[in-house]
Design goal:
Layout (H helix, E strand, L loop, with lengths): L1 H31 L1
């Protein structure tokens, strides 16, 4: 149970990091255009 929660926290953190990176990249791309 604990490991499952730990794994889910890691997955959600990774997803959040990816979406943040994509948002920053798209902002930079739009700004550079």
């Amino acid at each position: 149970m604990l490991t499952r929660r730990l794994r889910w926290n890691r997955i959600s953190a990774t997803c959040r990091n990816i979406s943040l990176t994509l948002t920053t990249a798209s902002k930079t791309f739009t700004h550079n255009s």
